[in-house]
Amino acid sequence: MKKKVIIFSAPSGAGKSTIVRHLLTRFNCLEFSVSATSRAPRGQEQHGKDYYFFSTEEFETKISNGEFVEYEEVYKGSYYGTLKSEVERIWAKGNIIIFDIDVKGGVNLKKLYGENALAVFIQPPSVEELRNRLVGRGTDSPEAIERRVAKAEEELTYADKFDVVLVNDNLEEALVRAEQMVADFQAK
Ligand code: 5GP
Predict the structure, then answer these.
(1) Element (H or E) spanning 92, and its range?
(2) Which one of 46, 126, 140, 162 is at 20 to 30 Å from 152 when CA atoms are compared?
(3) Which are the contacts of 28, defined by CB distance < 8 A and separation ≥ 6?
């Protein structure tokens, strides 16, 4: 049994979480990697389901103890990372891990897992469209939206480091293409 992983990375607001959630309903063999973060929970988010929420101090202790496969300070003052224990937990069940992770983390995991990883970069149609989506989502302040948009412009330059680029200009079509990619990778 190969230990496989599927990585989804994208500038935030590109529709990555929607695509990942959809795939999880379609493929029983996929299991979502719950990341650790030092940011505060938003809305209905639950510890152990959406993220493992830790204080900055707890997170930094885990970094020193070498408990992460990868971690990044995705936003200033907010750490996000993948715990080794999470990866082992999912593989122990024979499942394929699906990651929803920032672009730098995605590139690092691809380097780490090589052929056993399918790394997908989801590309929003345009930066303007991305801004509209973040406004529509209504979970971020105007300042936070501008920070995310500026970051997205930089993140778009990472696309060529991934195995495939999935342009999300039409969600229905993107979902069908994503399903096909997963089915092909699963069969490999
Ligand atoms: P949010 O705060 O909106 O939930 O997530 C912010 C960003 O952090 C998203 O791009 C998300 O994909 C990324 N992220 C979530 N978990 C991880 C992780 O474990 N490692 C890294 N490097 N990025 C992550």
Answers:
(1) helix 84-92
(2) 46
(3) none
Instruction: Give CA–CA dist 28/32, Å, rounded.
Output: 11
> What is the CA 83 to chain-centroid distance, rounded?
14
Nearest to 122 by CA among 5, 1, 15, 3: 15
Which residue do the tokens 């299991």 mark? Answer: 31
Report the C-alpha gap between 21 and 92 in whole angstroms: 22
The secondary structure of residue 41, as a DSSP letter, is: P
- 73-119 tens-digit pLDDT: 988 899 999 999 999 999 999 999 999 999 999 999 999 999 999 99
Pocket of ligand 1 (CB under 6 A): 12, 35, 39, 70, 72, 74, 80-82, 100-102, 105
pLDDT at residue number 130: 82
Give the distance (Å) from ligand 1 centre to CA of residue 100.
7
Domains within the chain, CATH numbers bracketed: 5-187 (3.40.50.300)
Question: In this predicted model, what pLDDT tens digit does every residue of 5-37 receive, in sequence order?
Answer: 999 999 866 778 899 999 999 999 999 999 999
